[in-house]
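Running this now, will post back.
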Amino acid sequence: MKKRVAAILAALLLVLAAGAAPAKGELTPTGTYPVLKQKLDMRFLTAQTIFIENWNTNRLSKYMEDKTNIHVKWETIPEDAVKEKLNLLLASGNYPDVIFGLGGRFGIDASTELKYGAEENVFLPLNDMIDNYMPNFKKVLEEYPTLRGYITSSDGNIYSLPLIEETYHVTMSSKLWVYKPWLDKLNIKMPQTTDEFYNMLIAFRDKDPNGNGKKDEIPLAGAIQGWRSCPTTFLLNSFIYTNLEPNLDEPVDSSLGFYMDGKKVKTILNTPEYRDGLRYLNKLYKEGLMNEGVFTMNAETQLTQLVENPSAPIVGVVAGGWGGVYSKVGGERYRNFVALPPLKGPKGVRETRYYPPDPSIGNFVITKNCPNPIAAVRWADFFYTREGTLMLRHGFENEGWRYAQKGEVGLDGNPAIWKPLKPWNDKEPQNDCWVRVGVYLQDKAFRLGEVVPPDLDPDGPEGVEKRLYDATKKYYEPYVHPEKQIPSPLRFLSSEQEQMATLTTEFARYARQSMVKFVVGAMDLDKDWNTYIANLDKLGLQKILDMNQKAYTRQYGK
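Update: finished.
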C-alpha cells in the first residue's frame, strides 16, 4: 500500500513540476496497454493533409483509442495555412492538449519551443517523463548518443518529440557520376586523384568520346538548383572537409563552412586548403571542363536536358544525390552513369561530405492544458517501436506490410525486417494510417531492412534504393568522418537569436557569392584573397564562431 501511495505522489509531483494541473485518469504500469484504466478525452491539433480523409474516423486513430484508452478529438488546420494559424492559436491562449505533427516546415522550430516552453510555460518540459515513462524512446536516445542534445532546448529542457528518418545514402549524398561508355571507349580507368580526374576531363573534352565528330562534349556538368547537383562540395572535399553549399536558397545554419575539430568549432573559409580547392575549381571552369551554367541552372529541367540530349550523349561527369536528379530513371543515360569515389587531393585529403540524420523536432508537444501528460507521452511512445512506425507509415500488418520471412534479405544483404504490400502514397486520400504525419523511427536498420526481391534490377525504377546503397557502401562510406560535421540545428538563447540570424544571413550570402566568384574568375584568388578575408572578419566571422562554440558546448558538453 505504501509503495502504491508513493508512486501516485511521485506521478503527481512530476505533473505539478511540469506546470500542469493534477492528472485525470488512473495510469496502468509503464510499458503496458492500455495506458489508462478508464477512457479519457484529449484534444490534439494537427494538419489536414490531402492523404488523410478524416483524422477522427481514421482507422489508426480508432486503433490507438482502443489500445490506450485515450479518445483523441482531432482538430485540424488546412495544410497550406498551418504556420499562420498555429501562430494565431498560440498567441490566443486557446491551446489544445497536444500539438501533433507540426514540426519542420509547419512552424514548431527551436525558437518556437524556446518562446512557448522556457519563456511562457505553455509547452511542458518532457525530460523526466521521457526517462520515466517512455521506454521505447529512451532506448532510441541510448542508441543515438547525440540525439538528446539535438532535441534539448537552450534552457536545458526537451519540449517536443522528434520524427526520425535516417536514410543511409542521404547521409553521404554529395556524389559525382561518370558516363562509363566514355571511360571504356577512351580506355581510361576510374580516376582516384584530382590530377587523374583533371586528365580524364581533358580527354572527354578533346577526344570526341561520343563519336559524332563535333566538339560538343561537356566534361563536367552541374546545376546550382537541385539536390546535390552542384559539384563544388564534392571536389572541395579533396582539399579540406567541406560542407559549404553555393546555393543562396540553402538554409542558413551553423554548418555554413564550419566543422568540428574534436569539440572545437572551426571554419574552412579562411584557410589555405580552401583556397587551393577554389584554385582547382577555377582551373576546371577556366579551361572549359565545367559547364558555364553550373551556377545558374536548374537540375530538374536544364541539367536533365543536357544529360538526356537526344542526338548523342554530351555529358561525361554529372553531380547529383541520385540519378533522378539529372536523368530519366531507368533510361540508358541513367543506367550508364556510375558512381565516382571521392578523389585524393594533392595533400592526401579524401573526404566524403557527411550530412547527419536530421530529426524533425516539434512533432509532439504537450501544452499546459493537457489533462494527463504522462498518459500522452505513453501514447506517443508506441510509435518509436518497429510496429508503431510500420502502422503509422504503411497501415495494418498483412495488409499494408508484413514482417520478413526466412531467407528474405534487405538492401544491405542482411536478413530483412519487413516488406511493403502496397505502394506507399502521400498524394491520394486514404483513411487507413497517417502516412508521414507525427512521430516515428525510420532508423538505418529499418530503411536497409526492407525486403529486396531476388529478381530486382538495381538500375531500373524499382531498384533506386539498392543502387544508391551499393554505390554509397562501396565508394563513399570508406571516406566518411561524421565527427567533423557540426550537429544541426544548434540551439541559441532568445537573447542570442536575433543577433545570430542577422550575422549569419549576411555572412552566408557573402561566403557563398565569394565562392562562386572565385570559381568563375570574377574575383582573383591572388589579388582579392586578403580583401575577402578582411570582409569575413568585418561580417563577424569570429563572433559567429564564438556563438556556435558556446551553443555547441551548452548542448553537447566540453
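The CA atoms of residues 382 and 388 lie 6 Å apart. More later if anyone needs it.
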